[in-house]
Amino acid sequence: MRHSLTLRVGPALFRIGSAWASPIAQLRRLYADYPQGPGEGAGAATATGAGRGAGTGTETWSGTGTGEGDIADFTVRLQPVKPWRRWLRPSIFIAGDHMLADAAPMALAHGLLAAEMGMNLQMALGWRRHLLLHAATVEKDGFAVILSGESGSGKSTLAALLGERGWRLMGDEFALLDLATGMLAPFPRLVSLKNQSVDAVRAVVGEDRLGPLMAATAKGDIRHLVPRPDAVRKMDTQAKPILLLFPHFGCNTCNATARPMDAAETFVRLTQASTNYVALGESGFRALTGLVASVPAAAIDYGSGEDGIAIVETLLREARQ
Amino acid sequence: MSAVLLVSVLRDPAAAPPLSSADWTRLFAAARAERLLGTLAHRLAGLPVPDRVAAILADARFDAATERRQALWEADRARVALAGLPDVRIVLLKGTAYVAAGLAAGTGRSIGDLDILVARDRLDDVEAALLVAGWEWVKPDPYDDIYYRRWMHELPPLIHRDRDRMIDVHHTILPLTARPSPDAAAMIRDAIVLEDGLFILSPEDRLCHAAAHMLADGGLEGGLRNLWDIHCLCAEASETQEDFYPRLFERAAGHGLTVAVWRALRLAHHLYGTPVRSQIGTDFRLRWSDRLFIARLMSRDGWGREGRWLLGQGFYIRSHLLRMPPMMLARHLWTKWRRGYRPLG
């Protein structure tokens, strides 16, 4: 495709191609500190034969990439809905290794969001090396807290705020649970902030680490937050899960509350929050029951970012005792 | 075109030239788009590859094993649902048949719907039994429903309400409107019984069906996968059965499928190196028109996109002309157009 790059986030390597320059330019800028490659063709120097023995190739990576070739796990394509829609009222169809035939076309102004959705789709439908939970993850002192919830529950915002308050943001979209060890692998892609949470987070981090405002998308107004440099630098450092929380933002009048959740409810909720639980079969079942049996869970309600942070800090302290 | 790379690695993985990282990425994109990644992963099993490649191949083999298990389970569910019709032979077709019989064509193969073949005069009984067992109609449009029942080689597709899996119940292997009319009764009569009481087609009929499906029906979508089936079926059958090819041609003639089978063998021989030998001196050199088929089969690029738009449109039109006579096609397209259906561009 005309414009492309390869990009590694945690364990997954994506090749993203686009018919237009702007989505790729925005990805390059916002993912500047991540391992990046050139994408199509250029600089592909690793020479390894299918039948002639494996070798380690030369690196074409910027950022912190070390030692691996840029063989992509997934390909994402941002292509025109119809050939002429490249120029005339440009309209993006999100395609790639895994795609949804009935995906809604997107405006070119929302190209960065389209690329992010394309990458998420590949993970959701194609990733098999971890159990994927639709959840944000934050870590402190090697212990990870999983924040699981549907879109709009406030998990991304809460994770982003914790990431500015001494926690390491491991990811805002997918928690990656190792099938053998039960450890969590980071997947610290850009944090997707919606509507009011954009202002709440901008008040804390300022403008520099925020992406362009994409107004009036299907999910409202969206801006992306670049995780702190330490979150990117430590994107290969796993953490042990210690607490499972199901946040719910919006309880304005009441005090922040935590309701302990039993294993059965937690398990059922997480099967619904996982995109590959069924595809993984027995190993997914073992990983999930292992997590639920070893980690306490609670539903939390809170009405402000400060309350949310406080309750997570308190629950972590209790869980560590 | 990365399809060329895909074909050469499938054909002889050990002899493939050294691949760069970009080559691997292009190979995987093309293989996924052609639904051949599981097959590729099995072909490359045991060969030394980079770690990242090994991880992707292991995932693909895992997914293929899952699809195999699900396909066999669906076949078993259909067997149970139809157990009340002991005199009806249930013949498994395509991918499910290959894995049920442990054929090489099934190794790593992606399998979607369950396809079965039953005698046409028992269709009503089969459909009724499937509806009782939880399968439901998915084509709400009465025109589509009537069209299927009057002209197609299968019932309108049914989906199981709990497992969300589709079953295609065939009573022959080509639409009734197509020019060749294969002898479905002979196919069912000569089918081979498996341990659980389900049937698969004889080796010759398997090949006739695969060739008809690929070349006498449809626009060659997924053609590289279908041709790989043909390659594996031929290679395996001719190894154990010395007179496989003469018998195949005799059988194909009986079904009116000589042209399709012959072309399938030429293409498979040319692209995948299928060992085609025949005592009757059949000519397996490529014809001029074969070049068009090869160009169409090899149109996948390194991003997984289908190129050669005009050629694809040509084959799309061909698929309709194969399927029905021109006046009937005109009436059909007019009806679909009025109902808001537009061909994908």
Can you give a write-up of this model?
The complex is a heterodimer of chains A (about 325) and B (about 350). With about 325 residues, chain A is α+β, with helices and mostly antiparallel strands. Chain A folds into 2 domains: about 5-125, no CATH class; about 130-320, P-loop containing nucleotide triphosphate hydrolases (Rossmann fold), CATH 3.40.50.300. Helix content of chain A is about 30%, strand content about 30%. Chain A has helices spanning about 20-30, 110-125, 155-165, 195-205, 230-235, 265-275, 275-280, 280-295, 305-320, and strands spanning about 5-10, 10-20, 35, 45-50, 75-80, 90-95, 105, 130-140, 145-150, 170, 175-180, 185, 190-195, 215, 220-225, 240-250, 255-260, 295-300. The relative contact order of chain A is 0.13. Residues about 40-70 of chain A have low confidence and may be disordered. With about 350 residues, chain B is of the alpha/beta class. Chain B has a single domain (about 1-340), classed as Beta Polymerase, domain 2, CATH 3.30.460.40. Chain B contains 15 helices and 8 strands. In chain B, strands 4-5-6-3-2-8-7 form a 7-stranded mixed β-sheet. In chain B, α4 (about 50-80) packs across α5 and α9 (about 205-215) runs antiparallel to α10. The longest helix of chain B has about 30 residues, at about 50-80. The radius of gyration of chain B is 20 Å and the shape is globular. The interface between A and B is large, with 40 and 37 residues. β4 of chain A pairs antiparallel with β1 (about 20) of chain B, so a sheet runs across the interface.
